[in-house]
């Protein structure tokens, strides 16, 4: 009886602390080993406290996505055994830890995928580099999914959410609701590098708008870092200000296409900060549901991982 082929899947994401107590170490890692000031630490801690209220469910989202992906891969491709490992950018288990676990468990071939559909050399590119360096060092053959921003099941999942979100505005014609697609801002210098990130995000936005049949939409950025260099804009809070001051709309639906989980950037930056701004401006604001473990999203991941595996085997 021949033994089934075992393929490792390194599922990478930004990471979030495991508890309120872990925030300082997490923030220090983001700041490349420089501890945050007391003011910075207080600011970030208060944001987490505002959304989690003493419990810390954020890690569970990613854990469930990884388990669901492993289950779907094995269900859809019974001739191969897939084993998923987590690799986080700024928290344990780090990207390198995930690759080390693979090597220790005898995995010789693997595929890496990031829980972010859009490629930038500064985001997904950084994950891939860290994983590849460690895989090369340990002799694990690893290829990578770079992006999947126009996968039909992803577009379908997001379109369903926009259609559902438009229904929250009772008695309001959908054309009177301004839909704003958002993603995490990055430093403006990516524009000089011909980075595909902004274009991929616009392509996803256009695909969803076409699927849902809306024309009253725009793109906005969110969650920019405080680094002293210019970041991509306009920021979502400025976009809301403009919509209000120019009387463009009274109803706004935000669809954060750059995020796949309920994390700080959704639960605080949108649900608390943007909502507070909207209320002050007299705007009615709603947000689409996050993808989390939606079967359409897990199917997207399963599909792109298997396609990458086949491509690498025939390369």
Automatic annotation (TrEMBL):
Binding-site list for Fe-coproporphyrin III: 14, 31, 47-48, 127
Source superkingdom: Bacteria
Coiled coil start-end: none
A GO CC term assigned to this protein in UniProt: cytoplasm
Binding-site positions, Fe(2+): 184, 265
A Pfam family: Ferrochelatase
E.C. designation(s): 4.99.1.9
Cellular compartment(s): Cytoplasm
Pathway where it operates: Porphyrin-containing compound metabolism; protoheme biosynthesis
Catalytic activity of the protein: Fe-coproporphyrin III + 2 H(+) = coproporphyrin III + Fe(2+)
CDD domains referenced in this protein's UniProt entry, alphabetically: Ferrochelatase_C, Ferrochelatase_N
GO molecular function, one term: metal ion binding
GO biological process terms on file: heme biosynthetic process
Keywords attached to this entry: Cytoplasm, Heme biosynthesis, Iron, Lyase, Metal-binding, Porphyrin biosynthesis
The protein's enzyme class: lyase
Biological function: Involved in coproporphyrin-dependent heme b biosynthesis. Catalyzes the insertion of ferrous iron into coproporphyrin III to form Fe-coproporphyrin III.
Family: Belongs to the ferrochelatase family.
The protein's name in its UniProt record: Coproporphyrin III ferrochelatase
Organism: Paenibacillus solanacearum
